[in-house]
Design brief:
The chain is α/β, with parallel strands linked by helices and 369 residues long. It contains 16 helices and 14 strands. One of its GO terms (molecular function) is hydrolase activity.
Length: 369
C-alpha cells in the first residue's frame, strides 16, 4: 500500500502521480489530505514550495462528480501566474480524466474567449478575484453549486489589497460548501476571514523542515548602490547559474537592470506588472525552455513561478520583510534540489537584513568581492 493510498487517494490518481514522478506525499499533503477528504474546513499554514497545491487538488478531484454539469470547485489565487500554475498542475492530473473539465479565469485573457468556454461543462474553476467578480456581475459564471472552495496564498491577497474582493466572492457561495484557506503567514485580517467564513476549521501548521534554510546556501554581498550593478555581473560571471531569478523592488528597476544585462550580453528578460498577459506568458515559456538564463522580476510578477532547474536567486534589492525573503529564495531548491541565494546589501539596507536574520534565526554569511 502506497503512502497516498493510506491517505485515501484513489488508485487511478496514484497512477497519474507516478507518471508525473510523484511517489511520496510531502508533510503538508500527509496532514491535509485526510482532513479535506472528510469534508472538513481547514486553515493550512505552509510555505510556498511545500507541495500545498496537490494537498488541495487531490481531495478536490476525488470528490468531483463528472455526471453533474455545474461548477463544483472554486480555487481563488492572488496572481495570474499562480492561477496558471495551479491550472497547469490540474491539467496534468486530469490527463486521463477526460470527463472532468477545468477552466482558469484571470485578467489579461480575452473575456469573449472565457465567455465561450463558460458555456461548456466546467467542474473546477481557478480564478483571480477581480476577473471572477467581473463574471459574477455579468451572471456568466454560476457558483450556486460550489461544494469546495480554496483560498490560496491568503496573506498575499491581503498584501495586494484583494481581501474586499475575496469577501464579496465568498458571500456568493453556498453556505454548505467546504472551505480551505492556505497561507504562508497568518496576519490578523486573515484570521478574521477564517473566523467569519469557515465553520469549525481544522488548524494545520507545517512548521517543520524549512526548505529555504536547509537546502538553500545563503550569502550576503555588502555593496553600495553605485557599485551594485557591476558587482551583480561579477557574481554572475563567477557563479555561472544554470537558471536564475533576479529580484528588484520596482518595475522601473527591473526594466533598467534587464536593459543593462542585455546590453552586456547576458541572456535576460523581464517580468513585471506592466507587461501584457501574452508577453508575460511568452517570457515565462522562454525561461522554462531555457532560451533565457536570467529572469529579472518584481515580487508580485514572480508569484507562482515554479520552474525546475532554477539554481540561483539574486536579491538585487533586499526584500523588506522575512516572508518576502522566504518566498523569493524558495524559487530555488525545488523538488529536493539545492540552490544558492545571494542578497546585495547597501548600507541603507542593514535594518532589513537584521529583520530577515531575526526571522529565519540564522546569521547569513557575508562575502566581499
Amino acid at each position: 500500500m502506497t503512502d497516498f493510498q493510506m491517505l485515501g487517494i484513489s488508485s487511478e490518481q496514484i497512477e497519474m502521480l507516478k507518471e508525473l514522478g510523484i511517489h511520496t506525499p510531502t508533510e503538508v499533503q500527509r496532514e491535509t489530505i485526510p482532513v479535506l477528504l472528510e469534508k472538513k474546513d481547514a486553515i493550512v499554514q505552509a510555505q510556498t514550495g511545500t507541495g500545498k497545491t496537490l494537498a488541495f487538488l487531490l481531495p478536490i478531484l476525488e470528490r468531483i462528480d463528472p455526471e453533474q454539469t455545474s461548477v463544483q470547485a472554486l480555487i481563488v489565487s492572488p496572481t495570474r501566474e499562480l492561477a496558471r500554475q495551479i491550472t497547469d498542475d490540474l491539467t496534468e492530473l486530469l490527463h486521463k480524466k477526460k470527463h472532468v473539465h477545468a477552466l482558469s479565469i484571470y485578467g489579461g485573457q480575452d473575456i469573449e474567449h472565457q465567455l465561450k468556454k463558460l458555456k461548456h461543462v466546467i467542474h473546477v474553476v481557478v480564478a483571480t478575484p477581480g476577473r471572477l467578480l467581473d463574471h459574477i456581475r455579468r451572471n456568466t459564471v454560476d457558483l450556486s453549486n460550489i461544494r469546495m472552495f480554496v483560498l490560496d496564498e491568503a496573506d498575499q491577497m491581503l498584501h495586494m489589497g484583494f481581501l474586499p474582493d475575496v469577501e464579496e466572492v465568498m458571500q456568493q457561495l453556498p453556505s454548505t460548501r467546504q472551505s480551505m484557506l492556505f497561507s504562508a503567514t497568518m496576519p490578523q485580517e486573515i484570521k478574521h476571514i477564517a473566523n467569519h467564513y469557515l465553520i469549525d476549521p481544522v488548524d494545520i501548521q507545517i512548521m517543520g523542515k524549512n526548505i529555504t534554510l536547509e537546502e538553500v546556501k545563503q550569502m550576503v554581498i555588502e555593496t553600495t548602490d553605485r557599485e551594485k550593478q557591476n558587482q551583480l555581473m561579477t557574481v554572475l560571471n563567477q557563479f555561472h547559474p544554470f537558471l536564475a531569478v533576479i529580484f528588484c523592488r520596482t518595475k522601473r528597476r527591473v526594466m533598467k537592470l534587464n536593459a543593462a544585462l542585455q546590453m552586456n550580453g547576458y541572456e535576460a528578460d523581464e517580468l513585471h506588472g506592466d507587461l501584457s498577459q501574452a508577453k508575460r506568458e511568452k517570457v515565462m515559456q522562454r525561461f522554462r525552455d531555457m532560451k533565457i538564463q536570467y529572469l529579472v522580476a518584481t515580487d508580485v510578477a514572480a508569484r507562482g513561478i515554479d520552474v525546475e532547474g532554477i539554481t540561483h536567486v539574486f536579491n538585487y534589492d533586499i526584500p523588506q520583510d522575512v516572508e518576502s525573503y522566504i518566498h523569493r529564495i524558495g524559487r530555488t531548491a525545488r523538488a529536493g534540489g539545492t540552490g544558492i541565494a545571494v542578497t546585495f546589501v547597501a548600507p541603507k539596507d542593514k535594518q532589513y537584513l537584521t529583520i530577515i536574520e531575526r526571522g529565519i534565526k540564522t546569521k547569513i554569511k557575508k562575502k566581499t568581492l
